[in-house]
Structure formats: structure tokens, C-alpha cells
Amino acid sequence: MGVSGTNIPRVRRYANFIWHYLGVLFYLLKLRPGKVMYYETLSAFAPVLYKLAFNRKTALYIHYHEYTSPQEYRDGPPLQRFFHSLEKKIYTKVSWLSHTNDFRLNLFKQDIAPVKATGLATFPNYPPSSWLVAPGASIGTPVKVVYAGSLDTRNMFSREFADWVISHNGKIKWDIYSYNFSQEAYDYFSQLNSPYVSLHAGIDYEKLPQVLRQYDVGVILYKGHIKNHVYNAPNKLFECMISGLDVWYPGEIVGCYEYDSTEYRPRIIRLNFQKLKSYTPEQLTGQAKGIRKQLNFTVEESSKALINNLLN
Q1: Quick one: which of 93, 150, 153, 258 could link to 180 by a disulfide (CB 3.0–4.6 Å)?
Q2: Domains located in the chain, CATH noted
């Protein structure tokens, strides 16, 4: 296991970027598609240039999996700023422009005002229906908690949650799976030396449902230091929920509020991660009234509108 990052020199990285973008543009010019979709600003260059300069009739589709504020664009990489200046020229000419939820879509509309983009939609990032598993009626002891994803101690409540888990002397066990973690996080968890908190290598996405089903609860750790996190219902929420797990998340993450459910499993429980000592495992995992009858948080459901748009 190692700390994420890159030692590639900046000049070489930029050369790789340019080669990639020119390659994509070459294939667009060769294939002459009538519909093109790209994800995120860093992918905008070739599709936008293709539409503006080579095929104005192209139906352009854009999806933003993350929300980027105007300040973050200004402070971000030069390439991202340049590409964003290009894509702003075509917002009134696109066939589809989506964010993952209404919070982010409304922030985007405020950011680009007075420009009124066309084709606005929400497109949540849900897992496949093949992941769907009914939760058990109850949770035993120890409570088996899982976190899978990027790990940090500065902008996540990871240290605080670990301290809380350890304080319960075996009533909770927490497994962390990550390919991408800060040096601080790696140092902290590697030296923790607790039988109740374990750091593992990351999991490939297609193997994730089989791993998640071994646990009772999935945890979300963001502190909400940027709007992208505050107004976010993370992938982890839906991946855990549809895999039959309860989810515990910090109150700072406003995008999760609409999914709160404390009576029926899978429970989605909002916690004050700055006062975790006020909770006990028994409080959070007591007997539920029953199991939720229907969970429609699948990519098959969320993609219907986009697929219909692409086919028409």
C-alpha cells in the first residue's frame, strides 16, 4: 500500500494531456458523431472545439459529477480554467447538461447567470440494480462498519470516528478500504495499532458489492469544507444503502438530509461527528420497525431520461 500522488514532471504531464486531447479531437473529426457526451470540465476541450469549429449541428451532452464553484475554477489548474472558458460559450447550445442533484444544479445556474443553459437535468450516480440486497432485520455485536474510498484526516472526520470506535472496546469494528489517502491519514492509521480499526487496500468497483454485504453500516466522513461536499449525496450513500447497509453521516452534509430514515432499515442516520461520545452503538443499531419496501436508487432508474434523450 502506498500514498497516492505522482512524481511525473509537470512538463511531461502537460504533454500527456495535450496528446490525449488532440487524439480525442482527431477521432471526433474522423468519426463525425452527431451526438457527443463528456464528463467534467477537464474533458471539455475536444467536444467543445468539435462543436464550435467543425460540426455546429452536433448535439452536445455534458454531465458534472462534481460541483466546482467559481472560486475553485479561478484557483484551479490553468487547463481547467481555460476549458471552462470554452465550455461557457456553448451552455446555451447543449442538448443535455446535468448535475447529480438539485442543490448542485441550482448552484450551477446561479454561477453562470445571466446565461441560461439549455437541457438542464439531474442525473444521480446510482449503482446497478444487481447490487440490490434486502437488509437484515437487526444488527448484532460487534457492529461491522465499513468505509471505502479516498481517506484524509484534515477534511474528513476519520480520526474522530476512529477514536470513537476504539472507545467502545470491541462493540464496533471498522474496516477501511482505500487506494487513495493522504500521507497524514496513512501515518495515523498505520500507527494506530488497534484491533478494532483496520486499513486495507482499495477494492475494484465490480467487487465492491460482495465486500459491502459483509458489513452492517457504511460511514461517510466529509467535514463539508467545500460546497461540493456540503451539497452532496455521495456515491457511498447509495452503494451502501442498496447493498443493505445502514449509513451514518455527518450533519454537515446537507445533500444527504432528504434520505434520512431512522425507523426502517436500511437506516440513514445523521450524526454530530464533533460529539460522537454522545452516541452508543446500541442507540444507533436498535431494533428497527421493519425493512423499507422499495429502493429505486439504481442506475437503470436514474438514466432513463438521458437514454430517452439520446435515442430521440
Answers
A1: 150
A2: 10-123 (3.40.50.2000), 129-291 (3.40.50.2000)
Residues 185, 191 contacting (CB under 8 angstroms) = no
How many Cα atoms within 13 Å fall on the side-chain side of residue 61?
15
The model's pTM: 0.89
What is the torsion angle, in degrees rounded to the nearest 10, for the CA atoms of residue 49, residue 53, residue 54 and residue 57? 90
Residue 70 φ/ψ, nearest 5 degrees: -55, -40
* Mean pLDDT, contiguous 10-residue spans, the chain (312 residues): 54 86 96 97 96 96 96 92 95 97 96 94 95 88 96 96 97 96 92 94 94 97 95 95 96 96 93 97 90 86 95 88
CB hemisphere CA count around 137 (13 angstroms): 2
Q: How far apart are CA 169 and CA 164, in angstroms?
A: 10
Say which DSSP state 151 is in: B
Largest Cα span, the chain: 65
Q: Is 193 exposed, middle or buried (0-12, 13-18, 19+ CB in 10 A)?
A: exposed
Residue 220, Cβ neighbours under 10 Å: how many?
Answer: 24
Q: Which of 56, 287, 283, 290 is nearest to 269 (CA)?
A: 283
